[in-house]
Amino acid sequence: MKGSDLLRLIGLFMRVARRRASRVGDVQRNAMSSHGMAYDLFRPKGRADATLIALHGGTWNGKDDPRLQHLAQCLAASGALCIVPTLPGLSRFQWIPDDIVGLVDLVDEFSSLGARVGLIGFSYGGSYALMAAAHPLVATRVGFVLSFGAYYSLGDLFRHQMTFGRTWPQQARDWDNWLYLQLAMARRHAARLPLAEAVIHELTDLLERYCHASTIEEKRTFYQRHLGSEVLIELEKAMMNDELCGQLSPAGKLNAIRCPVGLLHAAGDSLVPSEHARGIARELSASGTIPRMLVTDLLNHVDFSNAFNLAQWYRLATLLLPLVRRLPEEPS
Q1: Which of 3, 72, 106, 298 could, after both became Cys, cross-link 82 (CB 3.0–4.6 A)?
Q2: Once rounded to an integer, what is the mean pLDDT over residues 86-98?
Q3: Is the pLDDT of residue 299 over 50?
Q4: How far apart are CA 113 and CA 130, in angstroms?
């Protein structure tokens, strides 16, 4: 690892950790791709060293998620052109194959400018990034994929979450993930639940503030007042099917990936178990792409802002190196 890369990576960590706005050259809001996908564009002050697309997971805020916006500012301040799209399905807690189509279109659009595109995805967005990187239209134009808490098989994940969601969490650290699952299911099926309009508005407000301005007590009180796991789980089961799970699973689709892949996963992730990262790694390795993988207890699902730890710093730094290293130009 070059000294300049190390310094830039440390600078990126410091920007992410302090949670203040970073200075960027320009921010273009609500641009539209040729496929009709809305995105924000963060430009660095000087020449862009890389082109990156950062993808949210299941969040009602879509591209406007405060954590993702902050990361995009930090990446632009580090010298990258950063594109942050809203995936229409995921931003409404829906699984829609067209999200992948729109993402491939966005990669195609920006890679046509001459440079390969790096993909950074969180939770479901990490899985979508992997599937986009394997798409034959853009596979040779993706410079790297970095995923945080991605799933491998949507069917396996669905079965795990239905089991996890049936009973109250046994460990304090699981409450946030458990309540997120309940509130996401409730908002997905709000039209089928006996909820007053004011209650749906309160639910939406909670989801918009979920990871940065709402407490566990507030979320738990809402759940106890208005929701019940069994009803939500039955609605989920009626919605899911094997065909949809197959369309939106990285499993069996990764052999076309030819770029470096980094997998970062929380060891005790109760929402997306770390075995999913290992499944992704096994399939990539079998097709000749050896990923860098770090499964660590320093994370909580997809939040890595507090992951600095000297014992694991080198492995983490190596995995995150593509964020600050210029991507190669597209081969002729």
Answers
A1: 72
A2: 96
A3: yes
A4: 22
Q: pTM for the full model?
A: 0.92
Could you tell me the strand order of the sheet in which 117-122 lies? 26-32, 38-43, 80-85, 50-55, 117-122, 142-148, 261-266, 292-296
Give yes or no for residue 289 having a pLDDT over 60: yes
Residue type, 106: L
Q: What is the mean pLDDT of residues 192-198?
A: 95
For 238, the token pair is 């009626």
Reading the block at residue 319, the tokens are 């995995």
Looking at domain 3-153+249-323, its CATH superfamily turns out to be Alpha/Beta hydrolase fold, catalytic domain (3.40.50.1820)
Name the segment(s) of the chain with CATH classification 3.40.50.1820. 3-153+249-323
Closest Cα partner for 188 from 238, 248, 121? 238
CA torsion through residues 10, 11, 16, 18, sign = positive
Q: What is the DSSP string of 222-255?
A: HHHHH--HHHHHHHHHHH--HHHHHHT--TT-GG
Which is more confidently placed, 251 or 240?
251
Amino acid at 194: P
For residue 245, count other CB atoms closer than 10 A to its CB: 18
Length of the chain: 332
